[in-house]
């Protein structure tokens, strides 16, 4: 089974989760600037909310790589929102890509909010979440 990890981040918070997930499953986390070159049975795809939506680079990545994506498992951080699943599901549906019902989300540090997040516990929880998909 081919498993890949891609992410988009502005602050570095989501990259921390991506790196924890990638370490757990034994692959390298890469930015969405790196396209898929072969079929990913499972694509862990991470981002955050920006103005109540996912960034355009996530939308472009899914659209441009849809033929290589088996299923998206999304993860992310944000200071205020509780999950990126809903906007990610919409984008995936438009591209004809399946998305897992479960996602991983935790708080991310933003200005004075949630200092130090994601923390070690968040990273541990992200790794445990990823492990469920690779058994």
Q: Counting H and I runs of at least 4 residues, what is the number of helices? A: 4
Basic shape: globular
Calculate the mean pLDDT score and round it. 90
The helix/strand class is alpha/beta
Overall number of strands: 6
Helical content, roughly? 25-40%
Radius of gyration (Å) = 13 Å
**Regions with pLDDT < 50 over 5+ consecutive residues?**
none
Order of helices and strands: EHEEHEHEEH
User: What percent of residues are in strands?
Assistant: 15-25%
The N- to C-terminal Cα distance equals: 10 Å
Largest sheet: 6 strands, parallel
Features:
single chain, 135 residues, alpha/beta, six-stranded parallel β-sheet, 6 strands, globular
Describe the structure.
This protein has helices at 13-25, 56-65, 85-95, 120-131; strands spanning 3-7, 29-31, 40-48, 69-78, 98-99, 104-107. It is α/β, with parallel strands linked by helices and 135 residues long. Strands 1, 2, 3, 4, 5 and 6 form a six-stranded parallel β-sheet that branches. α1 crosses α4.
């Amino acid at each position: 089974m081919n498993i890949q990890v891609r992410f988009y981040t502005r602050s570095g918070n989501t990259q921390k989760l991506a790196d924890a997930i990638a370490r757990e499953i034994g692959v390298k986390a890469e930015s969405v600037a790196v396209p898929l070159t072969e079929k990913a049975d499972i694509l862990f795809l991470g981002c955050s909310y920006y103005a109540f939506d996912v960034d355009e680079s996530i939308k472009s990545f899914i659209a441009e790589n849809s033929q290589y994506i088996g299923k998206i498992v999304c993860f992310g951080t944000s200071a205020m929102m509780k999950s990126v699943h809903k906007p990610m599901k919409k984008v995936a549906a438009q591209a004809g890509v399946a998305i897992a019902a479960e996602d991983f989300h935790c708080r991310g540090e933003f200005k004075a909010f949630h200092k130090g997040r994601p923390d070690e516990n968040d990273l541990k929880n992200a790794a445990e979440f990823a492990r469920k998909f690779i058994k």
